[in-house]
Amino acid sequence: MFVTGRLALLVALGVVPLVLLNTAGIPAWLVVGGWVLLCALAALVDVLAAADPRAVEITRRLPERVLRDEPVAGELRVRNLGRRLLRARVRDAWQPTAGAPDERARFVVPPGERRGAPLPLLPRRRGEIRSEFVAVRAAGPLGLAGRQAVVDAPGRIRVLPPFTSRRHLPSRLARLRELDGNTSLMVRGQGTEFDSLREYVRGDDVRSIDWRATARAGTTMLRTWRPERDRHVVIVIDTGRTAAARVGDGARLDAAMEATLLLSALAARAGDHVHLVMFDRVPRARVTKVDGSQLLPALVDAMAPVEPQLIDTDWDAAFAQVRQVAVRPALVVLLTAHDDPEAARGFLAALPAVAARSRLLVATATDGPGEEPERTDAASVYAAAAIERARHDADRVRAAVVRAGGDAVAASADDLPPLVADRYLALKAAGRL
């Protein structure tokens, strides 16, 4: 049971009979008691006349998957299974990160009929958002009081990474087409797969002259090459404790996902095979043997529910997962943190074995250079020293990665995805992938 503001207003109106009857000599306590009893009786009658809030069927019309920070236009539908007119206010019990409105939806549903109301959501976090029930308040015909109940109505939506780095994809695809020789400029990359023959022009690499074709044609002929296809790109995302660090407006893990999606879209268009492993001490997500148009949906669906774990990553076990996926030489991209020498010891110790059989790229998202603090007092001097120490530690780890046979890059959360994509294109152009 619940009461409304109308009941409080009705009780307050008891001042009128109190004044009128008090002048007639009737005791004030008798007037007040009688008026309150009358109001309570009216509220009880209103409760008894209200529809049963449990005699409803709740359904929702919502997409199964949505992007984070994208508005969702859903619908909440109520069917009246009772015999009385249902005047209800319904509150859907979504978790706060779903971005549901605060106001309750109003319904007036005749018996046996169904009515709907808009259900706008704005998810602000990846993963699954759920609502297990709705709270229904059925008011009586007088609007003084009513009955309320909690109705089980489970619902869920999977919130996917937003892929905001998609804006960098057209320019990288244009560069890929240039490398592949599909533009009008016919620009050739220094790959290892033979493409065609053409006449030599001044400035071409003489090492690409085909002497047999030259003898047959009577003019100097040049071999052209295209970047290799059907290669393997293995992306390993560290989901250990360093992935929970705040970088920019989000966690380091979110930046790693953005870099993964951009690189995967580019590699899939280039004809390469992409594999994903998200790992700390056990695999949190794994995508392999998926190509073409199904790749990106499979990646975002696998990454959506993964959250950072506050544990250290077991890199020996992680690279064992890589060896299972990459059965031939491949490009291995590690998205982790390489800014703390102490935390990176286990990671650095396992790198040489991977670099010996595959191309290795280690990428990390940082806060960016930022502004150098003015050294005007002791606090600013200590802050500047801490920044300089962090840079020095990151440089040490980066140098250790290079010594182990890999390549290390670091950038802000917004700049990391295009930087990783550019390194991939550079390896393609150099014929090293």
Descriptive notes:
By secondary structure, the protein is α/β, with parallel strands linked by helices. The chain folds into three domains: 1-160, Immunoglobulin-like; 194-226, no CATH class; 232-429, von Willebrand factor, type A domain (Rossmann fold, 3-Layer(aba) Sandwich), CATH 3.40.50. It is 34% helix and 29% strand. Strand 17, helix 9 (345-355) and strand 18 (359-366) form a beta-alpha-beta unit.
Gross CATH architecture of the largest domain:
3-Layer(aba) Sandwich
Q: What is the CATH class of the largest domain?
A: Alpha Beta
Count of separate structural domains: 3
Q: Please tally the helical runs, counting DSSP H or I stretches of 4 or more residues.
A: 11
Range of helix content: 25-40%
String of helices and strands? EHHHEEEEEEEEHEHEEEEHEEHHEHEHEH
Beta strand %: 25-35%
CATH topology name of the largest domain, in short, is Rossmann fold
- The overall average pLDDT, rounded, is 85
| Number of E-state strands | 19
- The backbone outline, from C-alpha atoms, is elongated
- In terms of structural class, how would the helical and strand content be classed? alpha/beta
| Rg of Cα set | 33 Å
Q: Distance N terminus to C terminus? A: 70 Å
Low-confidence stretches: 182-191
Let me know the CATH homologous superfamily of the largest domain.
Answer: von Willebrand factor, type A domain
Largest sheet data: 6 strands, mixed
